[in-house]
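[agent] plan:
  1. take the single chain provided in the ticket
  2. run structure prediction with default settings
  3. attach structure tokens to the ticket
  4. add a short note for the reviewer (M.T.)
[agent] executing step 1
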Amino acid sequence: MGRIDRAGRVIAAPPATVYGALLNRRSLEVWLPPDGMRGRIERWDPRPGGGFRMVLTYLDPTGSPGKTSDATDVVDVGFAELVPPERVAQRAVFGTDDPSYAGTMTMTWEFAATGEGTEVTVTATDVPPGIDRAAHEAGIASSLANLASYVEEAAG
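[agent] step 2 finished; step 3 output follows
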């Protein structure tokens, strides 16, 4: 097993609500892109063995070259495991010719009920070496903050 990156956050919403936000095309387009990016889903099949393709576009690509082009990251994501409302495991492959971003990264999203809502833990395994650890963990934390805002507004 290669490198492992992690991030987590408590979200003020029940696990079923948080889980549902990972299996809704429109919600993913809103909250999954980290700060400084926007996302568009091109293909959508929300079932085990299915998946989606997301095009992430840098709002300002200066100094942050994309993996697929100067301004974009294209990632094909497969749903490896769906265990409502406890876990979503995804296999992500970047569209790139750069071998430092090659391979399949697994993203496991785990949800545990707490008194405050849901503790969400994201574990990325087999992270390609071209992805900077600090930037990746900050990106996951940013997506988690976006997820929290999205589901907490919907719940409130």
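[agent] step 4 note for reviewer: Residues 4-155 form a domain with the Alpha-D-Glucose-1,6-Bisphosphate; Chain A, domain 4 fold (CATH 3.30.530.20).
[agent] ticket updated
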